[in-house]
Structures are given as structure tokens and as C-alpha cells.
Amino acid sequence: MLTLADLRIGEHGEITGFTDEILSLKLLEMGCLPGTEVILTHHAPFGDPIALKVSGYTLTMRREEAATIQIKRK
Amino acid sequence: MANVTRIALIGNPNAGKSSLFNTLTGLNQKTGNFPGVTMDKLTGIWELEPGRNIEILDLPGIYSIYPKSIDEELVINILGNPKHPDYPDMAIVVADASNLKRNLLLFSQVRDLGIPTVLALNMIDVAENQGFVINSLKLARELNVEVAEINAKKGIGVGGLKLAVIKTLKHRYASNDALPLPVSEELIEDVQKQFGEADPYRSLLWLMEHDRMKMFNQEQRESFDHLMEKHQFEPKKYKSAETVRRYEQISEVVERCVINLNRQWDAEPVKTWTDRLDKVFIHSFWGYVIFLAILFVMFQAVFTWATYPMDLIDGGVAQLNDWLKGILPDSPLTGMLTDGLIAGVGGVLIFVPQIAFLFFFISMLEETGYMSRVMFIMDKMMRRFGLNGKSVVPLISGIACAVPAIMSTRSIGSWKDRLITILVTPLMSCSARLPIYTVLIALVVPEKNTLFGVFNLQGVALFGLYLLGFFMALLSAWVLKKILRAKERSYFIMELPTYKGPRFKHVAISIYNSVRAFVFEAGKIIVAISIVLWVFASYGPGDSMAKIEEQVRLKNPTLSGVDLSNKIASEKLENSYAGHFGKLIEPAIKPLGYDWKIGIALITSFAAREVFVGTMSTIYSLGGEVDNENATIKNRMRAEINPDTGKPMYDAALGFSLLIFYAFAMQCMSTLATTYRETKSWKYPLIQFGYMTTLAYLAAFLVYQILS
């Protein structure tokens, strides 16, 4: 299963679902909804956390958190 | 003030809520405290119509009504409880138009609580630059609320907002009876039967968030749990499903009310300034270089520039004391006023410039949006030690004072990360340690020597102590991470706001609040201790004190003038209660190289370490010689002879042992009190006190034994 953690900088993806119930509420509230398009824009040094463009703003999260977001490539 | 109309300002972080608050209230602001919570409450007066003033309450920025951290909890405690003294008559939800869907989520939740709400659309220009045109009239009809277009920063649209607020207050729009996502009607009825009539969504909020709401007692919380069990209601599932449902409804509304020009023209999204700046500020190499450079300037300000106002305060207090001693009769009361109370107040005020400088920088970095980038690039490193990217701010603030630093941990969502940050922050060398470091370093580190011919050795030693504190904080965090059990998972899901120019008014308010917290929270205790200390150092058991003057005169017939009164003062101290305490603990501190005189300083320092220098000058009988106090106390201490060895008392071993002890020991009542308030348990201040003091004792013991 492809997750957000698998994206490389500049790559696009579309959110399809979540694997973690507790994190998913926070992610949903921040606008990471199924069907939303995301673009990976930055890595922090050492590749973690990551920054992505979603719903018109920049959101950061840790790699392990990104791994709970399932995506499909666009 | 019971009949004053109150409006709550609600919105996402960075949506322009604070700008709007400043625009509406101008200088009519005041900070207070929310009952039962130690969180700053910012209220202001807004003239809605000529002769009609209403109160505006600024609430912390949130993304959703469901709280994830302590500072977010406050919002549901007010909005969820109509009996709360700060419960508003209506709400203004400030929404960032360039991020409409996410902002409307919060709006829809607030409206469903049954609070009359106005939607203030901010940053419409930003949205239009991105190619989105919003039909706000249509939006108002679709959402069935008053919508006002505003530009909070420039103060445009206030007239329209006034009209919207007046209309809403007058008509008190009927609240939404339907739940966004239906639940069994019996569940809502059961909640209403037991806890009173309320809008369905409010009843549901009570049910789901009862643990975080202070309006419920333990018994009520248990009955909520029973109800959830009875109806097999799972709040986590419901909240997620509700959020998705709300977004679906919002998307439909937005689809009808917003024209997306990008889609029509198939344009590429524009590269913004923020994108360009981020290429440098969160770069894997330059990001750190810039951060270190900013830290360096901050240190310069706190330790170099702040000394000028500090010298002024120091001199002013000394002059006031001299003047008072001159005009007041020589009595115990005068002594208590000058050497006790005023000296104590002066000891607090002297730190104000450093705290102000530090919070100027921190607030500027937060205002511009840069601080989020620091959190972003530091998270990975901090996480290894059981901390969080967000721990960076408290740790940096800890250089000035641990009290505001610990209060700034509230934004850390994970309890374990927050607790560890609170527990280790006092290891950062605060400004109260600086005078102790200065005196002791001057005693044991030669002034002339330099490292590689460039760096002054004393400066290197001072910097080393700050680094030592920082690394010990990281190390302790790492150990705590292994010991403490996590109740919840740590997470780091955070918005990176766009870069903005700083609003200097916010910076000023932030400086004012931090200084106020220090002066009133820490200040109270420091002043109280100074007075107690003065009493213990001035009085002794029985009539021993009274006889001293006579005895000294008899024993030292050659002494006169200043030398005589110094000798008397010194003998008095030895026989005072403080002197007796010092001798009592001497066996325990002997292995660290300390005698009973240092013992007195240690005991008094346990309430507030900044009294060390003052105690030292009392012990070494300096009395009224206030000018150039440090130089004089240095000389006195340098001249002190160790009675056991016949060599100078303050050699390298003792000096470094004391430095290390002060670097690590938990000697600050105000910090412990703050830790208690922030953790709501005596367990954590006790742990903090225990581990830091043990660490200090062991480290000082090792240093003394190795060096001597």
C-alpha cells in the first residue's frame, strides 16, 4: 500500500484513507480528506519531518505520521 | 460588568484573529486570568455603536472544537458551558478566505453549539491572488449567517462587521437543531435528562469531551461513561465521521460560492515568497546556520545589551536604599524595609531587561512565522531525546527564566513530551544564575589567559556552563523518556504559516505578559524569601545576638570604624538562625568542599538562587558597601583562607564544584510552583526537585574530588 511517506519531493498524490484512528481525526481537521490532492514540498534535515502542500497551505508532519495516510499517485 | 454584551473571537491559528482583536479594541485591552486556569485572558472593549460598548474576548487559536492540547481545552470549557462566567453572547469566527474549507469546519462546529455566530472573512486579497473569488452574499445565504468581508491587518471592513454583529445580536438566529451526523435519539435524550436541556450538538460535546470539561465532577463523568457504554457510542469514530461529513457539506457550499479561476484558466499555482524563503530557512545546511546565527544575536542581546538597563536598576535601588537609610531612624523596621523588602524587589527587577530582550526575540520569531520553521528543523533531533520540535521555544526561553518558559509548553499537544519539557527546562541556565556564574568564574578562572589567543577564558567558561545546562537537559530528557510511560502518542502535525512582517503591538504585548508573569509570579516568592532571610540572618536564639557587639569590642580592642562594624556583622551572622542552619548542614556539604558559610548561601538559595550573591556579601560582612559590590565581594572571597589547609578557600576545586552545583540544582520556588500549576500534581515538582538536586550534589562531589 502506497503511503504519503513514500512520496519524493515534488511528487503528487491523492489521499485515499487512513490507517490510524487517533491521528486521523487531527489529519482530517487539518484538511487531509480522502480525495484531497497533496504535494510533498520539503524534507527537514535527515529527511524527517516532511512538509506538504494540502488544501492550499503547508502542513508538516513526521514521517511515521505520513505513513498512516494512504495515497494513490496522480 | 454582568450586563455587558460579550463576543468571543474564535478562529484557526494564523487566520488573523489577533489582528482583528487589535483593530477592534485598539488600546482598550486588558489581560487577566481565567478562573481556575493559569492562562492569560485577553479582553478588550469595542465601541459597537455610539454609546454602546461591548466586551471582546480573544480565545486561543484552534482548528476544531475538539481539543488536542491544554491551551485548546479552554475553548470548549467556555463555549460548552453556558454557566461559565466568560460564556459569550455571540461569537465572531475569523476565517482565512485563502483556506476557506478548513476554516469553515470550525465555524460550523461553533454554530452548531447554538451560539449566534458571525463569519468574518479575512485575507480575501490573498485568496484572490491565488485565483479564488468568493461570493460572500451567497455564502451568507447558504450558511444562514451574517458574513462580513474584512481585512484585519489594514482595518478594512469594520463597518460591515458592526452591522453583521448588530443584526445577529438582535435576531439571535435560531441554532441548528440537526446534528451534522445523526446519533441515536435516545442517547441525546439520556444526556439531556441527566444533564439538562441543551442543543443536541452541545449535549454530544459534553458526552464526548466530559473528561476535559471542568464543569463536570467525577460522578458525572462516570455517568457519561455509562451512557456511552449503554448506547455503544464511540466518540473517536464519531468525531472522524462527523469531520468528514462536515467537510462534505462545506465542499458543496464552497463549490457553489467560490469561483476557481485556476481551474478555468488551467494555470500553474504561483510561486509565493514563502516558498522561496523556505528554500533557505529549512535547508538542511543553511537552515541550521541561520538558526545558530539568530541564537548568537539573541545571546549578545541578553548578555551584553541588557547590562546597561540592569546597571541602571541596580544603581537606582542602591541609591533609594541609601537615601531611605539616611532619612529613616535606625531601627529593625528600617532594616527590614531597606535590606529586606527593597533589596528583594530590586533583586526581582534586575532581571526584567534580560527577560524583555529575550521575549522580544522569541515573539519576533513567532510573529514572522520563522519559529515554526525552527520547530520543523529541530524536531528530529529533539525527538531522539524524548522531546518535540515544539520544545525548542521553552528551552530557549529557559535562558531568561524558567517560569514563562514552562508556561509556554502548553502548545505541546502530547502530554509526555510536554511533561518532559517542563521537567528539564530548569536545567537551562536562567538569568538568575548569571550573577553567581560571574562572581565564581572571576574567582577561579584567570582573566588574562585566552584560548587560542582569541577567546577570553572567562567567556569560554561562561559559555561552557550554558552548553553544559543544555546538554544536561537533553540527557535528562532522554532518561525521562525511558522512565515515563506514555498515556498518549506524541505527534507533530503542524501548519507552517506563511511568512509575515511582525506586528510590533503583538510583540509588545508578549514582552509585557512575560515580564508581568515573572515579576508577579516569581517576584512574590523572591521578595518573601528575602524578608524571611533577613529575619533569620538578623536574629538568633536567646540573647546571643545582643551580647556579640560587646564581645567583639572586648576581643578586638584595636579595631574601629568600618572594620569593627564588619567584624560585628560577621559574628552576628554566625550566631544567627541562618548561621546555625549552615553549621547544621555542614557535614552533608563537606564532601563538596563547602563550609557553613557557603551552607547558609545554599540554604537561602533553595528558595531563589539569585539571593546567593546577596547572602555572600552579608556573610563576608560587607554591610553597606553597595558600590562596586561584585568587585568587593570577589576580593573578600579571594582573601578567605581555608582553616583546614591554610590555603585560599576559593580554589579551582571549590569554585568549579559550586558552579556545577548551581548549574544543576533546583533552587527556585517559583519554578516548582509553576510546575505544580502546569501539571496539577505535587508529584512532578517533587521529581523535578529530587532529580536536579541529586544531580547537582553528585556532579559537584565528583568535580571537587577530582580537582582537589
Automatic annotation (TrEMBL), chain A:
This is Ferrous iron transporter FeoA-like domain-containing protein. PANTHER family: FE(2+) TRANSPORT PROTEIN A. One of its GO terms (molecular function) is transition metal ion binding. The keyword Metal-binding does not apply. Keywords: Iron. Pfam families: FeoA (PF04023). Residues 2-73 form the Ferrous iron transporter FeoA-like domain.
TrEMBL record, chain B:
Residues 4-171 form the FeoB-type G domain. It is found in: Cell inner membrane; Cell membrane. It is a multi-pass membrane protein. Keywords: Cell membrane, GTP-binding, Ion transport, Iron, Iron transport, Membrane, Nucleotide-binding, Transmembrane, Transmembrane helix, Transport. The chain crosses the membrane at residues 285-306, 341-365, 385-407, 419-445, 457-480, 518-537, 652-674, 686-707. Its main location: membrane. Pfam families: FeoB_C, FeoB_N, Gate. SUPFAM superfamilies: P-loop containing nucleoside triphosphate hydrolases. Probable transporter of a GTP-driven Fe(2+) uptake system. Belongs to the TRAFAC class TrmE-Era-EngA-EngB-Septin-like GTPase superfamily. FeoB GTPase (TC 9.A.8) family. This is Ferrous iron transport protein B. It comes from Aquirufa aurantiipilula.
